[in-house]
Amino acid sequence: MTDLRIDPLSPVAHGVEPKRTPDGGESFGDAMNKAIDRVERLEKTADSAIMDMLNGQAGVHEAMVAIQKADVSVRMLLAVRNKAIEAYREIMRMQF
In the chain, what percentage of residues exceed pLDDT 70? Predict the structure, then answer.
């Protein structure tokens, strides 16, 4: 089950070098864009796995694994989005 590991962050494959923070890390926006791209790829993979299953080219278990991967990635992305929105709202409530 090596497919279920978390990959380390790396530059976006678009050929655009990600923006760096002063300490050399990747910017939050670039990290979110990469996460969105990965979720989109997993959803497309799940869609193609479903079509393969319907055409008899793949088994049900393969389609279910692809669907679950896409589901978990969407849930994780939504959780990060919700936390980011919550943090933004908290910052906006601060008084200086």
Answer: 76
